[in-house]
Amino acid sequence: MRIRGRMYCDWDDPELDYITHEETADGGSMIEVKARRSSAGVTQLFIGVYSPDGVGVFEIAYDTRPETVTQALAWGVAQARRFVSMEATLQPHMRA
User: Fold this and answer.
1) Which residues constitute the domain of residue 67?
2) What pLDDT does residue 93 have?
3) Is there a domain that residue 1 lies in?
4) Total of domains in the chain
5) Which end of the chain is more exposed for a tag (fewer CB within 10 A), N or C?
6) What was the pLDDT predicted at 2?
């Protein structure tokens, strides 16, 4: 279960269809990326990274992206993976 933050709640719109990518990274962090076309025809994107226990670590929403929905999803997945990788690199230093 994910504990989503305000960013997701503000982005979510049950009237719009979206495509989703979810994965569990090494270390148990969860990645969730959603892309959609708004009612105005604009590509929108949500990126969420959650700790292994479901707490939101990073959430960002884009009201507009220049890519197609599929391309935006792929871009968002790459960004989420970079964030998880960076977080994993920093964690040992943060515990010291």
Assistant:
1) 6-90
2) 45
3) no
4) 1
5) C
6) 87
CATH number at residue 78: 3.10.450
- List average pLDDT for each run of 10 residues in the chain, which is 96 residues long: 91 97 94 98 98 94 98 98 79 48
Task: Give me the pLDDT at residue 1, please.
Answer: 80
Residue 70 belongs to some domain of the structure:
yes
Token pair 């999803």 is at which residue? 73
Asked whether residue 76 is domain-assigned, the answer is yes
3-state secondary structure the chain: CCECCHHHHHHCCCCCCEEEEEEECHHHCEEEEEEEECCCCCEEEEEEEECCCCEEEEEEEEEEECCCHHHHHHHHHHHHHHHHHHHHHHHHHHHC
